[in-house]
Predict the 3D structure of the following.
Amino acid sequence: MWKFLGKRFLQMFITLLMFQTVTYFLMDAQPGDIADLLTLNPDIPPAERERIRVDLGLDRPPAERFLKYIGNFYKGDLGVSFSQFPRPVTEIILERLPRTLVLFLSASVISFWAGYASGKVLAWKRGGVIEYSSTLVGVILYTVFTPWFALMMIWLFAVYLDWLPPGKFLDPILWLTAPEGIHANDVFVRMIWSVMIATGVMILGLIGTQRLSSQLRKTGRWVSFVVPFIGVFLYWRFASSGISLYAWDILQHLVLPVLTVTLIAYGGTMLLMRTSMLETLREDYILTARAKGMPEKIIRDKHAARNALLPVWTGLVFSIGSSLSGGIITETIFSWPGLGLTLLNAAQVEDIPLAMGALTVTGVMTLLSHLVADIGYAFLDPRIRFS
Amino acid sequence: MTENVLEVNDLTMHYMTRKGPVFAVDGVTFHVKRGEAIGLVGESGCGKTSIAISLLKLLPNNAKILNGEIKINDVDTVPLSDKEMNKYRWKNISMVFQAAMNSMNPVYSVEEQIAEAMREHMPHLSDQEMSEKIDYLFNLVGLDPALKTQYPHQYSGGMRQRAVIAMALSCDPDIIIADEPTTALDVIVQDAILKRIREIQEELNMAMIYISHDIAVIAEVSQRVGVMYAGKLVEMSSTEDIFHHPIHPYTMALMSSFPSIVGEKTELVTLAGEPPDLLNPPAGCRFHPRCPYATEICREQEPDFKEHAVGHYAACWHPGGVK
Ligand SMILES: Nc1ncnc2c1ncn2[C@@H]1O[C@H](COP(=O)(O)OP(=O)(O)O)[C@@H](O)[C@H]1O
Ligand SMILES: [Mg+2]
């Protein structure tokens, strides 16, 4: 296991280095640089432009700049943003990354779970209107053009029904009057922590009750699901009542983008799970389980769905990359100030350090999620060993 | 307790296909006594597996039992719902499948798959008792109990087959069906497992239906033998009778293709032609197109499955080939 991890990290490092090299030179190959963008400004004389160029080091040959960048990067210095001079890139990324992570992780987890659960049931209860229409919806969600779908979601929920805000991270008018010392990111990070702790308690509850007898287990599980909910509620209602209004605002802004990304990712997972489940149901060991007189639910969940999950999990690995890049589109449409939008803006104004930083972090995220997916697979399938 | 663990009366089941119904089991009647091992033999496609899955009511969607009774310990299970049937499965009647190589779920340990059935049908057992019982079963089928926590893929084909047999025995069934349990294995392993099955059957004094297309295998394990042809049971009697005094021409032909067993010089009856298409079975006796003794009546009327000597049943107009 440790040997496997060591090898994987080495591979990831090499991949990342290659990725950085390619992206740096591609970025550099864009015609012009940030100083050229000042050309249109009549107040800035050409000499001054040249001075800016020298100050930012843009007069040096690309290879020299690249080596310097890489050297600094692995010392932990990601440089200073050109467009938001002199903010360090690390600071900007640390501010934007949680927003993207929350969007991406919650959408992935929800869509995966929902796709798994519904695909399983659809395959089990073959036939009928429900299966037909659900499959149709799945195909539509799977093949729909993301920007169009996102716009339709905005139209439906923000305009027509007017239930949710159409975009952005928060409501500026509300936050304008916010008391001194309340920062959006602090509130957001607190929200993340409370959800993470609640989830942690639930998982611990699930693990802790595993060895109990079935009656105790049911109660134990119920408690470990309800307690975190109550805890989170109490925390926001009383301990943090001053900022709960602002947290609620962020939460409202979060719903629509998460829902959109979730629905798009859901279609594929559900269809794949359904097909995989139909295949699995034909396996001999399903017949054995039926012959053993196991109840339907055990055959469906423990025997069929558990095996049908394997190819779906593999599919997850492939979808990670596309949902991260799809994240840029979604963030743009919802004006969600996460990493994707940051990357897009930085690239447009030739802010090389910021764009490189955002790209690299996205790359690291992709590599890490692949690693997690691979390790998860080894746990799901006893036939796979770390090697 | 009645004498018969299993009684099958006039069982008829078909598969619905695009070309029409396939009568894979047609009017089959037999019984199995407590502790008795019977064999079912017949060419591939004659409906042996169909009988087995009907007994456990594990029919695919396109299959249907049209008629007849299946009495397990005197209870007719044909009208039972799937949920009610679950009480009988494994507890009273269990099965080792033809494709036993893939009969185990790859993601659970062998122990878990055996324990699962025991938890369902013998909830009074403690974890400790269950673990001991699994050790006992492993020893019984000739496996090292230390291997029980391993996964099916870590077993060889023969070991997996033994584990599947252990699983089928786990809930002390009244009757076990073994559907060609050794067909997928290589010959040496086949012999070893067959021998073990026979020993276990005698040791536990458990009723068994052993299904095979191989008459030599059947001879080794069963006290009585039923011969199937095209969805019908055509002859049934003690193994001794079937081998030495067969009265149905199909059985006679079957036996003469195993001269080493018959031993004596019997007239070698060759079987011309193909087994009939079950979509369009011939009228009258289904064997008549291939039967050397067939007459007018064979082509027109189906013979009844009736007792010709004590305990010796056959469906033939010319038993023993007498015109
Ligand atoms: N699911 C099915 N659908 C349609 N026909 C089937 C199905 N299963 C078996 N059959 C047909 O039923 C007949 C008997 O099959 P089976 O019981 O498997 O024979 P055996 O076990 O003696 O080889 C064969 O003609 C086979 O083609
Ligand atoms: Mg068969």
In short: Residues 44 and 188 of chain A are 40 Å apart (CA to CA). Residues 95-380 of chain A form one domain. The two ends of chain A are 8 Å apart (CA to CA).
